[in-house]
Amino acid sequence: MQNTSEERNKKQEFIILLVLGTLIALGPFSIDAYLPGFESIAQDFNTTISQIGLTLTSYFIGISLGQLAYGPIMDKYGRKRPLLIGLGIYFLAALSCMYSPDLTWLIISRFFLALGAAGGMVAAKAIVRDVFPVNEVAGAISVLMLIMGGAPIIAPTVGSFIIDAMGWEMIFLFLAIFSVLMIFSVTKLLPESKTPDRAVNLRPKQVAVNYFKILTHHKFWSFSMAGSFAIGAMFAYISGAPKLFMENFDLSQKEFGILFGINAAGLILGSQINRLFLKKYTPFQITIFNSVILLVLSVLFLLNTIAGFGLLITAVLLFLMLFLLGFQNPNTTALSLEPFEAKAGRASALIGSLKMILGALTSFAISQFHTSSTLPLAIILLVCFAISFILLLKFSNQEKKALKFSEV
Questions:
Q1: What's the predicted TM-score (pTM) here?
Q2: Mean pLDDT across the chain, nearest whole number?
Q3: d(CA 226, CA 224)
Q4: DSSP H helical segments within 99-242, as ranges?
C-alpha cells in the first residue's frame, strides 16, 4: 500500500511540475514567438522596427511590476485564484494585441499581457516551495527549467510558421488559445498549495516594507542577487548574440539559428545534469564551484576577444557558460527561497522581478554599443560573473564566521 501511495505521489508531483513548467514558459514564449513578425508589424503600422521594440520594453516593465504585485496577493489569497485571474487578464490582453489598430494600442496591450503572464512565473516557484521538501526544491526547479528552456528554442520557429501562413495577428490568437488551455489545466490538475492568510497586509507601504525585509535577509540577498547577475549575463548574451555571430562572424540567419539552438540546449542540459549532482552535493556546493568556473570562462572569453582566436573558441566558451548557467539558476533560486515558507509568494515574486530587471539592464547596456566588436559583451559577462562570485564568496565567509562563533 505504501509503494502505491508513493507512486501516486510521484505521479501527482510530475503532473504538478508539468503544469507549472508550462505556466512559467508562458513568459518567454510571449516574447520570442512574435519576434519574427517585427518587420510585418512595422509595415502594417507604417513605422520602424526599432519603434516596434517598444512593445518589448512595455512587456519587460509589465513582467517586473506584475511579479511584485502577485507575490503578496498569492500569500494572502492562496495560489490558484490569483493565478486564474492572471490567466484571464492574459487571455483578454492577447486578443487586444491581435486586434490592435495602432502601435500605441499594441504597446499598452503587451504591458497587460505581461501582467497576466507574471502570475504564472510567481506561482510556479511559490508552489514548488509549498509542495516539495526544502532539499528537493532545486531538483524540482531543474525540471521546470527543462520545460521553460524549450520555449525560446521552439517559439521563434512556431512564430515564423504562423506568421508566414496567417499573419502576425494570429500569433496572439495562438497565445489566447494557449492561455485557455492553461486555465483548464490549472483548474483541473493543480491543487491549492497555500492556505489563504488574511493577515497579509496589501497596503502599498506595508507591501514595500515586507519586500524590503525579504530583500535584506542575508541569505536571500546573497543568492537572489548572485542568481540575478548570472541571469543578467545570459540576457546580455541573448541581446548581443545576433550582432556577434551574424555581423562579426558573418553567419547566415539559418546558421545563427542552429548555433543559438545548440547553446539553448546546453542551458537545458545543464539544468538536468544538475539534478544528478544534487544527489551527491548540496545546492550551495554546486553553486560556489560553478561560480568559480564561470568567472574563469568569462576571463578566457575576454582574452579570446582581445586575441581574436575566431568562431570555434568563441562558440565553445559561450556554450560552456550557458551549460553552467543551467546549474546556477535553479540552485540560486532554491537557496533564495529556503528561508521563507509563509512568504514564499513574495520571495518568489521578488526573485523573478530582480532577474528581469538585471536582464533588462544588461540588454539595454549591450544595445548602447553600436559596434560589431565582441568586447562590450565580454566585459559585461566578466562583470556579471565577478559580482555573482563575490556575493557567494562573501556569504560563504559569513557562514564560516558564524559557525566558528557558535562553536566558541
A1: 0.75
A2: 82
A3: 6
A4: 103-131, 137-166, 169-189, 204-215, 218-242
